[in-house]
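Lecture 7 notes: from sequence to structure.
We start with the chain below.
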Amino acid sequence: QVQLVESGGGLVEAGGSLRLSCAASGHTFSNYAMAWFRQAPGKEDEFVAFINWYSDEYAYYGDFVKGRFTISRDNAKNTVYLQMNNLKYEDTANYFCATCYSADYYLRSNYKCWGQGTQVTVSS
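Predicted structure tokens for the same chain:
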């Protein structure tokens, strides 16, 4: 059974940075693509970033990211990261990592395995 545990969230001032981590277990991590989604209060889930299993070169981001976030993975540590820079108030949300996906990488419904989330709060 796949288990995902996020960490690294917290309170940060606008313009600051955070690095989220997602530690995976229960499957061969290096064989799976990974993604981050977020959910803000009163809003629908939003695709943040995706990284393919075989190369960091194949990474994709939500339109709102605009070069501020970077997804990466360390297969030796079974961990995927989300480096978030120049954070904005509107980035405040609960951030989830996900795997076990099929078809379109940007659709939440295509992922079967989820972590519990880590809260990111950006003060203005």
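Points to note: The chain is about 0% helix and 50% strand. The chain has a mean pLDDT of 94.
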